[in-house]
């Protein structure tokens, strides 16, 4: 794993901080794990790099060695699935994206965690699982009422813009969650500052095929009406509903941002779009809240843009609808691990109140009430406290439908959407193709078997399901 090296001054400061921390007595069961080695498969992302700074501290405290294999984000799902399917136990625990939880849990790849949470011999007495935000822990790690993973951070998707560029052009960007920030506002603002001849494009979009199931969805949701919210993909009988005028309008809007992009941008992913923004050559781009510190606000690596940004939500559509995005990465123990107790010991430590709060100064995101309310978060990542209420009350863990077929649905949107971007088909054809192919996927999954009465509950229609206290899950 590419772990950022600390300067001598930072390392010395961290050492003094560690000496000042209260020492928690280890249980006999924890002491017995000394000498173990656990293997971790992780994606290459800023929040994991932030946590990695603390791994030596864990190894010194518990005597358990952490070996990390890092994989690029776009290759991670395939790599993790292959490893899980082979059942070799090569990796003791995995990073799990919220949109893949149903697929992994339904296949039996992950170990239920609540027995470990409640095991006082392995879990520190002050772990306090009820300190996690209810929708964060349930939306990240619960499938069929069972807890399978622990969140290392969770947040909304959004957009980042250069406040100084807007000011120079004679306007001020709105506040986060302001109804003023609409799809029309975003397009008009991007057009106003777009000037490729001066190396400034209006918006660095992300149209690469693999990414449509992530970066296009804010617009699919934005073009809903209050009456159609909840029916973005399927109706109450699981019939695919995506072929409609709202989807077509959302694709057309996504495509309109091509006006600001270079001709060779059809395969741009998060890396390409972010690099253009970091170089100071884009007015705006997509963001995910956990990426803000690492991608946009690190003065050592983003000197051209750090401190000059405004981080907003995704734009509201014509009917005022904002995408209720829920994104999160979490940690899950492999059912094939030979070192489950050692893996759990690490997981409960790295997601503890103490470590989570300290890690936010390096870019890790919050998932606990105490972290959101901490002075550390407010000091080092001041864009986070403003989304606390959103994550408590508005966010939708089922924004990307929590079924094992989601990865296939996402890929279908990416393939058909990217075909529109490159001019191979139009948006109407794409929406029709999406409906047909998604229907085939759901039929293959058994959703249309006559008389079947055990279909999954559509929890996004009543989000109170996700509001239980974390300790109440199985």
From TrEMBL:
InterPro entries: Bact_solute-bd_prot1 (IPR050490), SBP (IPR006059). Residues 1-25 form the signal peptide. Keywords: Periplasm, Signal, Sugar transport, Transport. It is found in: Periplasm. Coiled coil: none annotated. It holds the Pfam family SBP_bac_1. Gene3D superfamilies: Periplasmic binding protein-like II (3.40.190.10). Its main location: periplasm. GO terms for cellular component: periplasmic space. It comes from the Bacteria. SUPFAM superfamilies: Periplasmic binding protein-like II. PANTHER family: ABC TRANSPORTER PERIPLASMIC-BINDING PROTEIN YCJN-RELATED, ARABINOSE-BINDING PROTEIN-RELATED. Belongs to the bacterial solute-binding protein 1 family. This is Multiple sugar transport system substrate-binding protein. It comes from Rhizobium giardinii.
């Amino acid at each position: 794993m590419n772990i950022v090296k600390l300067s001598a001054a930072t390392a010395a400061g961290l050492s003094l901080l560690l000496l000042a921390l209260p020492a928690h007595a280890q249980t006999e069961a924890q002491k017995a794990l000394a000498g173990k080695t656990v293997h971790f498969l992780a994606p290459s992302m800023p929040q994991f790099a932030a946590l990695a700074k603390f791994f030596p501290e864990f190894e010194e405290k518990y005597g358990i060695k952490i070996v990390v294999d890092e994989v690029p984000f776009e290759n991670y799902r395939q790599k993790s699935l292959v490893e899980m399917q082979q059942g070799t136990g090569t990796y003791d625990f995995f990073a799990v994206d919220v949109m893949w939880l149903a697929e992994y849990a339904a296949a039996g790849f992950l170990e239920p965690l609540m027995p470990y949470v409640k095991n006082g011999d392995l879990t520190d007495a002050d772990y306090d699982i009820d300190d996690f935000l209810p929708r964060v822990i349930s939306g990240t790690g619960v499938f069929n009422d069972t807890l399978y993973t622990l969140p290392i951070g969770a947040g909304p998707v959004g957009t980042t813009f250069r406040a100084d560029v807007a000011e120079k052009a004679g306007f001020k960007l709105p506040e986060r969650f302001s109804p003023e920030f609409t799809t029309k506002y975003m397009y008009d603002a991007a057009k106003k500052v777009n000037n490729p001849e001066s190396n400034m494009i209006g918006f660095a979009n992300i149209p690469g095929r693999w990414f449509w199931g992530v970066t296009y969805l804010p617009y699919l949701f934005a073009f809903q009406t209050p009456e159609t919210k909840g029916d973005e993909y399927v109706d109450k009988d699981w019939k695919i509903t995506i072929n409609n005028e709202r989807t077509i309008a959302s694709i057309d809007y996504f495509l309109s941002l091509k006006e600001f992009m270079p001709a060779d941008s059809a395969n741009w992913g998060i890396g390409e779009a972010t690099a253009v923004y970091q170089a100071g050559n884009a007015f705006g781009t997509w963001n995910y809240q956990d990426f803000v510190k690492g991608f946009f606000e690190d003065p050592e690596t983003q000197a051209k843009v750090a401190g000059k940004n405004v981080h907003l939500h995704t734009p509201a559509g014509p009917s005022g609808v904002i995408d209720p995005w829920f994104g999160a990465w979490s940690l899950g123990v492999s059912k094939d691990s030979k070192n489950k107790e050692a893996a759990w010991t690490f997981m409960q430590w790295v997601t503890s109140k103490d470590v989570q709060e300290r890690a936010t100064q390096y870019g890790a995101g919050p998932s606990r009430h105490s972290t959101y309310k901490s002075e550390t978060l407010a000091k080092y990542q001041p864009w986070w406290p403003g989304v606390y209420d959103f994550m408590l009350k508005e966010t939708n863990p089922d924004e990307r439908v929590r079924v094992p077929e989601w990865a296939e649905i996402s890929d279908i949107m990416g393939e058909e959407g990217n075909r529109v971007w490159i001019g191979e088909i139009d948006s109407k054809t794409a929406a029709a193709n999406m409906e047909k192919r998604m229907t085939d996927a759901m039929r293959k999954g058994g959703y249309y078997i006559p008389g079947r009465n055990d279909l999954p509950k559509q929890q996004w229609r009543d989000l109170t399901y996700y509001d239980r206290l974390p300790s109440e899950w199985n």
